[in-house]
């Protein structure tokens, strides 16, 4: 520790240089600035990630290590109070990935005009003096953000599924189609649009309910035999089992480029490796680039 006047901007973690003559001061100052920039530039940043601000080099490194082990990417770093220029840098994420338009301010002051600027731009600043408090606040924010995005994209995200008709369980052949199917691969969810590639990609409707052992369920997975209700797509004429498709036809969920992107961005946790393999297979079937 050092004691003296005008030490407000002293940075813990940097070397201490002694000037023996007056003219050495600017040279040593430049050397320290260069040393700090070099130290910061050695820290590997991601293209997409949060902006991290800390009071000292040591606390910055501690926070970055904590973020690394928690798999939180960081795209920008700085030391000292949060200034307007830091908010501007963090706001770049609004274009790339808005969930990371965030400043994690660890044990530093947030200037009032910086906070006002962040509020107007839509940048979130989380400030705390304890790493865990900072991380908990950010984790909660990220979970809430993900839930809101899942809600927003749930009608766009179509999970991959491949179904085989169980011909002995055809309960209604048209409007709605009610029949037994076996899930050959993937995940079948309520709201999934279905089509039959072998019959000119005819869209037979949307799954409105799934029953397993006479109980309603939201999801069915590979290997399960279920009863599904398929209602016509609004505005289209109802399709009929026996006319538009047969028991020998494989039924698949109708995926699109937008639905794949929605799965990648917001529903990755619900997908297994085999589900992504089915996505690759269906991409070829639907000729999605």
TrEMBL record:
What keywords were assigned to this record? GTP-binding, Nucleotide-binding
The species is: Fundulus heteroclitus
Give the highest taxon in the source lineage: Eukaryota
Residues forming the Translation initiation factor IF- domain are: 34-138
Q: What is this protein called?
A: Translation initiation factor IF- 2 domain-containing protein
The record's section on InterPro entries has:
EFTU-type, TIF_IF2, TIF_IF2_dom3, TIF_IF2_dom3_sf, Transl_B-barrel_sf
GO-annotated molecular function: GTP binding; translation initiation factor activity
The Elongation factor Tu-type domain covers: 160-251
């Amino acid at each position: 520790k050092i004691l003296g006047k005008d030490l407000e901007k002293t940075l813990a973690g940097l070397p201490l240089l002694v000037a023996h003559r007056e003219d050495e001061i600017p040279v040593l100052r430049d050397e320290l600035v260069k040393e700090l920039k070099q130290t910061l530039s050695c820290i590997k940043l991601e293209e997409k990630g949060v902006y991290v601000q800390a009071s000292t080099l040591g606390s910055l490194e501690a926070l970055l290590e904590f973020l690394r082990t928690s798999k939180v990417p960081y795209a920008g770093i700085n030391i000292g109070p949060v200034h307007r220029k830091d908010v501007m840098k963090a706001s770049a994420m609004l274009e790339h990935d808005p969930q990371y338009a965030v400043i994690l301010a660890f044990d530093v002051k947030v200037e009032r005009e910086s906070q006002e600027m962040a509020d107007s731009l839509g940048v979130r600043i989380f400030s705390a003096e304890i790493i865990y408090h900072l991380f908990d606040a950010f984790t909660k924010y990220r979970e809430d953000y993900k839930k809101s995005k899942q809600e927003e994209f749930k009608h766009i995200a179509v999970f991959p599924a491949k179904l085989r008709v169980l011909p002995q369980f055809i309960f209604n052949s048209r409007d709605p189609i009610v029949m037994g199917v076996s899930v050959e691969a993937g995940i079948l969810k309520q709201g999934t649009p279905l089509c039959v590639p072998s019959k000119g990609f005819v869209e037979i409707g949307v799954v409105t309910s799934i029953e397993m052992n006479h109980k309603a369920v939201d999801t069915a997975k590979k290997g399960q035999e279920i009863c599904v209700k398929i209602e016509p797509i609004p505005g289209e004429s109802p399709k009929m089992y026996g006319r538009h498709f047969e028991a020998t036809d494989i039924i698949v969920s109708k995926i699109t480029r937008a639905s794949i992107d929605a799965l990648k961005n917001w529903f990755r946790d619900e997908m297994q490796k085999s589900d992504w393999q089915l996505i690759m297979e269906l991409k070829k079937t639907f000729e999605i680039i």
